[in-house]
Amino acid sequence: MPGRHRPMATLATVAAAAGVSRQTVSNALNSPDLLRPETLERVQQAIDDLGYTPNRAARNLRTRASHLVGLRIEPALQGNASGLMDRFLHSLVESCKEAGLHVLLFAAEDVNDPLDGYDALLASAAVDAFVVTDTYRGNPQAAWLEARQVPFVAFGRPWAEPHAQHPWVDVDGRAGVGLAVEHLADRGHERIAWVGWQKSSYIGEDRRSGWLDRMHQRGLPTTRLSARGEDTIEFGRRAAHALVEGEQPTAFLCVSDTVAMGVLQAIADCGRRPGADDVAVVGFDDSLAAQVIPPGLTSVRQPLEGVAVEIVRLLEDRLAMRAVEHPHVILAPELRVRGTS
Amino acid sequence: MPGRHRPMATLATVAAAAGVSRQTVSNALNSPDLLRPETLERVQQAIDDLGYTPNRAARNLRTRASHLVGLRIEPALQGNASGLMDRFLHSLVESCKEAGLHVLLFAAEDVNDPLDGYDALLASAAVDAFVVTDTYRGNPQAAWLEARQVPFVAFGRPWAEPHAQHPWVDVDGRAGVGLAVEHLADRGHERIAWVGWQKSSYIGEDRRSGWLDRMHQRGLPTTRLSARGEDTIEFGRRAAHALVEGEQPTAFLCVSDTVAMGVLQAIADCGRRPGADDVAVVGFDDSLAAQVIPPGLTSVRQPLEGVAVEIVRLLEDRLAMRAVEHPHVILAPELRVRGTS
DNA sequence: GAGGCGTCTTGGAACGATCCAGAGGCTGCG
DNA sequence: CGCAGCCTCTGGATCGTTCCAAGACGCCTC
C-alpha cells in the first residue's frame, strides 16, 4: 500500500499531543465517562486535530473481534433469487451499519459443499459471525456452526429440524399466499388454482398450505386445482394449459413470479388478457419482472428490509452473548396488487 | 465471542509442537523455500495436527494490509441496475477470491454524498482498496481517492474527464448497440429507431452513437427516428407510439430493457406482436425481465464476469504498486438474441 | 585447521490497540 | 490528623503475526 502523506496518527501520537497517556485517549473513545470533562475535551481536540481514527487491525487483534459478518454469496440463480438477493443485501448492509458491523462477502470453492468457505474465515478469525441464507436445501451449516459455537443467524427456517434452537428469521410464505387468496376471493374468484413447486420443496409446500387452508376456510374448491413442478416459465405455461382444460380456474396463484410468467404466457396463448377477461394471476417475490411486465403482475412481496433488521438484532444478541429465549422471527409479507388481478 | 473448545492454535503453539521457532513456522507459510524439506514437512505436520490458521488481525496489523476491498453498495434502484449488481457482485467476489482478497460492503450515511463512507474505512485501515461503481454521475470519488493515493479501480469510464489517469474498466456500450444494428439490418430492417436517455446521460449518448454511426455506415436513415427521455416504461411506451405515428420504424433499439418494456407495450397496444408481424425490439442489459417476458427480449448483455476479472487484475497491479501504462480496459458486450427480433 | 560463505534457524522488537494493576490527588469521616 | 475510598490517570504487559539482525551449523577452500 502506498504511503500516506502524513504518517497515520496513532493512540500514542494523540496522547502526546494532548499531554496524556495512551490509556486516557483509549478511554476517551471507549468509556468517555471515565474522564474529567476538561481532559475529555482536550483529548477530543487532539483527536480532531490529528484526524485520528483507531486502527482496525490493532483493535481486532486485542479485542478478538472484527465486527465483520460473513455472508456466503451463492451463484446467481437464473430465476427467482436474482433481484431478491440485491434487495436483501442492501438492507443487510444498512442494518449492519447501525450496529457497527460490516458485511464481508465470500464465495465457496466448491459450490455444492454447503460448508465450504465458512471454515477458513472462522479459523483465521476474520469474521465474528455469519448470516446463513441458503437454508432451503437443508441446513448442515447451522449444525456445523452451532457445534463450534459460532454466532450466526439464518435467513430461513430449519425446515428439516423444526425444533432447532439456533436463531433464524423467515418470511411467512403461507400467510402471504393466504393474503392472495383473500384478495382473489374478494374479487369474486372461486376456482383459484395453485401452481407450485414439487412436493420435496419445504418452502413450496408451506406456501401451498396457505392456499389450501384459506380456500377451505372460505369454502372454496381445491380438488384438481393444484399443479406442481419445477421453477421454470415452461412449467408454468404447461401447468396453466392443463388446468384450463380441466377445472377452468378463473385465477392462478403461483409459487413464484417465474412460474407466474409461464402462466401469463399460457393465458396469452388462449387469446385472453389477465386482469381483464375475468382471469387473474398472482405471483410470489415481487421481482423486477413482475413490476415490468404489462399490465403488472400482482405479487407477494417479502419484507426483506424487515428481515435484515431482525437478523441483525438477533446477531447483536448473540454477539453480546445475551441469551434470547425464542430467537425465531417470522415476518408477514404483503401483497402488491397490480394489473393481473 | 464465545470461546472455542480448544484455544485457537498460534504460531507459538505450532512452533513448540514442531520443535522449531516461531519464525520458522512463519517462513514455512510465507517462504517455504527457505526451509530444509525435512523441517518444512515437520512444520506442516504440526500445522495440520493443530488445525492452525494464521490470525488475520495480527497479520493485518503487522503487514499493514487487510486484503479487503471496499465496495459501496448503492440504494437498490428500481430499474436496470437491479439484477445487474447481483451478477457483478458475484463475479467480483469470485475474482477477488482468486487474488486472495475479500469484498467488504459498506453503505453511505448520506446517499447523496458520493464520498461518504470511504473516509471512515480508509482512516481505520479497514480496507486496502476500493472498487468504485457509480461513475455515471461524475466521479468525485476518483479524484478524492487518487489525491490520497488510495488504490482503487472504477467500473465505468470517467466520462467528464476522459484523460483521468486512474484505472478503470468499462463496457463498450457503443459497440454493443452497433452489434444490435447489424443484427437488425441483417434481418432486413431499414427504419431502425433509437429510444434512448436524455442528452445529459453520458452513457446514453455513448450507446446512441453506436446506433447513429452504424446506421450511417450501412446507409440507413436516422432522421426523425430518435427519441430521448427518462429510464421508465412509460417513456418507452410514449416514445414508441410517437415514432409509429411518424416514420413508422420496423425496429426499435432501446437504451435499456426498462425502456424496451414500454416499447413492447406500445406494440401490443397496436395489436401487433414483436418478433412476428415484422416488428423487432432490442433492449440493453439482458435483465431478468428480458429473459422472462414472452417471447423473450433480444438484449445487449454486459460481460460483467469479464469486468470483474479485469478490475481485480488492475487492483492487484495497483496493490503491488506495479505501474501500468494504460490502466484502462473496455470490454465488448454481446447480443443475446431472443424472440423479439 | 582457520577463515569464509551459504543455508537454516533463532530471539528480540515492532505493529497499535486494550486490559490490568496500581499510583497520585482529593474528599469525607472518625 | 490519619486513613479509607473514590476518581482520574499512568505505565507495563499483551494480543499473534512479521521484520530484523545475528547466531549456529556444515561445507568448501586455501
As for the number of domains of chain A, it is: 3
Largest sheet of chain A: 6 strands, parallel
> Which word captures the global form of chain A?
elongated
Strand content of chain A: 15-25%
Strand arrangement, major sheet of chain A: 2-1-3-4-5-11
* Run of helices and strands of chain A: HHHHEHEHEHEEHEHEHEHEHEHEE
Mean pLDDT rating of chain A: 90
CATH topology category name of the largest domain in chain A: Rossmann fold
Fourth CATH level, the homologous superfamily of the largest domain in chain A = Response regulator
Calculate the terminal CA-CA distance of chain A, rounded to whole Å. Answer: 58 Å
Report helical residue fraction of chain A: 40-55%
CATH class of the largest domain in chain A: Alpha Beta
CATH architecture of the largest domain in chain A: 3-Layer(aba) Sandwich
Class by helix and strand content of chain A?
alpha/beta
Number of E-type strands of chain A: 12
Oligomeric state, counting identical vs distinct chains: homodimer
How many helices of chain A does DSSP assign?
13
User: What's the gyration radius of chain A in Å?
Assistant: 26 Å
